[in-house]
């Protein structure tokens, strides 16, 4: 069951990442077509993208750690149950 949930999360995370990356590419393409958009004007967007990517990576690490802890908890419970039985 944990493996199923982990796979579900991984797949969803991949889709969200792809959508965010495509959105970034689209906006950058828009900026590149209009020469009047200065680097200074692009700065807030680039900072936002950097922040979003870091937050996304931190979220991923936290979820992965949670799955690891859950798996250890379940394994320990199974071991204790097996010893009693």
Largest sheet: none
Cα(first) to Cα(last) distance is 23 Å
| Rough outline | elongated
How many beta-strand segments? 0
Gyration radius, in Å = 21 Å
Helix-strand category: mainly alpha
Report the portion of residues in β strands.
under 5%
Low-confidence stretches: none
Total number of helices: 2
Q: Which bin fits the share of residues in helices? A: over 70%
Number of domains: 1
Mean pLDDT: 91
Task: Give the helices and strands as they follow along the chain.
Answer: HH
Question: Which secondary structure elements does this structure contain, and how are they paired or packed?
Answer:
Elements (H helix, E strand, L loop, with lengths): L1 H32 L5 H46 L1
Helix pairs in contact: 1-2
Question: Would you mind describing this structure in some detail?
Answer:
With 85 residues, the chain is mostly helical. The chain has one domain. The chain is built from two helices and no strands. Helix 1 (2-33) runs antiparallel to helix 2. The chain is elongated. The two termini are 23 Å apart.
Entry keywords:
85 residues, mainly alpha, 2 helices, 92% helix, 0% strand
